[in-house]
Specification:
GMP Synthetase, Chain A, domain 3; about 90 residues; alpha+beta; 3 helices
Length: about 90
Protein backbone atom coordinates (compact mmCIF):
# COMPACT_ATOMS: atom_id res chain seq x y z
CA UNK A 1 0.00 0.00 0.00
CA UNK A 2 2.85 2.35 0.78
CA UNK A 3 4.47 1.50 -2.55
CA UNK A 4 1.26 2.27 -4.42
CA UNK A 5 0.88 5.59 -2.62
CA UNK A 6 4.51 6.49 -3.20
CA UNK A 7 4.11 5.66 -6.91
CA UNK A 8 0.95 7.79 -7.13
CA UNK A 9 2.82 10.68 -5.54
CA UNK A 10 5.77 10.35 -7.91
CA UNK A 11 3.41 10.39 -10.93
CA UNK A 12 2.17 13.72 -9.56
CA UNK A 13 5.79 14.96 -9.31
CA UNK A 14 5.81 14.68 -5.48
CA UNK A 15 8.89 12.75 -4.40
CA UNK A 16 9.16 11.95 -0.69
CA UNK A 17 12.23 10.26 0.72
CA UNK A 18 13.56 9.10 4.05
CA UNK A 19 11.57 10.25 7.02
CA UNK A 20 9.17 12.27 4.87
CA UNK A 21 6.94 9.23 4.34
CA UNK A 22 6.19 6.80 7.17
CA UNK A 23 3.54 4.19 7.75
CA UNK A 24 2.10 2.55 10.82
CA UNK A 25 0.05 -0.56 10.03
CA UNK A 26 -2.28 -2.46 12.36
CA UNK A 27 -3.77 -5.84 11.56
CA UNK A 28 -6.95 -6.88 13.34
CA UNK A 29 -7.58 -10.57 13.92
CA UNK A 30 -10.76 -12.21 15.16
CA UNK A 31 -11.10 -15.79 16.31
CA UNK A 32 -13.61 -17.66 14.16
CA UNK A 33 -14.23 -21.35 14.73
CA UNK A 34 -11.09 -21.45 16.83
CA UNK A 35 -8.90 -19.90 14.10
CA UNK A 36 -7.42 -16.40 14.07
CA UNK A 37 -8.69 -14.64 10.96
CA UNK A 38 -7.40 -11.31 9.63
CA UNK A 39 -10.47 -9.08 9.39
CA UNK A 40 -9.05 -5.58 9.04
CA UNK A 41 -5.92 -3.66 8.14
CA UNK A 42 -5.59 -0.07 9.28
CA UNK A 43 -2.89 2.00 7.64
CA UNK A 44 -1.80 5.35 9.08
CA UNK A 45 0.45 7.50 6.93
CA UNK A 46 2.70 10.26 8.25
CA UNK A 47 3.76 12.54 5.43
CA UNK A 48 5.99 15.60 5.38
CA UNK A 49 5.24 17.31 2.11
CA UNK A 50 6.61 20.42 0.44
CA UNK A 51 4.37 23.48 0.51
CA UNK A 52 2.18 23.80 -2.55
CA UNK A 53 1.55 20.12 -3.29
CA UNK A 54 -1.26 19.38 -0.81
CA UNK A 55 -3.97 19.06 -3.49
CA UNK A 56 -1.89 16.48 -5.39
CA UNK A 57 -1.22 14.53 -2.20
CA UNK A 58 -4.91 14.56 -1.26
CA UNK A 59 -5.86 13.21 -4.72
CA UNK A 60 -3.24 10.44 -4.47
CA UNK A 61 -4.51 9.45 -1.01
CA UNK A 62 -8.14 9.48 -2.12
CA UNK A 63 -7.50 7.01 -4.95
CA UNK A 64 -4.61 4.85 -3.76
CA UNK A 65 -6.61 1.99 -2.19
CA UNK A 66 -8.61 1.44 -5.36
CA UNK A 67 -5.35 1.24 -7.35
CA UNK A 68 -3.42 -0.92 -4.84
CA UNK A 69 -3.11 -4.58 -5.89
CA UNK A 70 -3.02 -5.75 -2.27
CA UNK A 71 -6.08 -3.77 -1.20
CA UNK A 72 -8.01 -4.85 -4.30
CA UNK A 73 -7.07 -8.50 -3.70
CA UNK A 74 -8.35 -8.33 -0.12
CA UNK A 75 -11.58 -6.50 -0.97
CA UNK A 76 -14.60 -8.28 0.44
CA UNK A 77 -12.53 -10.41 2.82
CA UNK A 78 -10.52 -7.87 4.82
CA UNK A 79 -11.57 -4.32 5.61
CA UNK A 80 -8.71 -2.02 4.56
CA UNK A 81 -8.79 1.58 5.76
CA UNK A 82 -6.34 4.46 6.01
CA UNK A 83 -5.78 7.73 7.76
CA UNK A 84 -3.09 10.35 7.27
CA UNK A 85 -1.18 12.94 9.23
CA UNK A 86 0.18 15.51 6.81
CA UNK A 87 2.72 18.18 7.67
CA UNK A 88 3.56 20.82 5.09
CA UNK A 89 7.19 21.91 5.23
CA UNK A 90 8.72 25.13 4.03
CA UNK A 91 12.03 25.36 2.21
CA UNK A 92 15.08 26.19 4.33
CA UNK A 93 15.66 29.90 4.66
CA UNK A 94 11.99 30.86 4.44
Amino acid sequence: MLGTLNGALEVRQVKLEGDAIRTLVEGVNEVRDGLPVLTAIRVHYRLKIPAGVRASVDRALARHLERCPTAVSLRGAVDVSWSAEIEETTPAGC
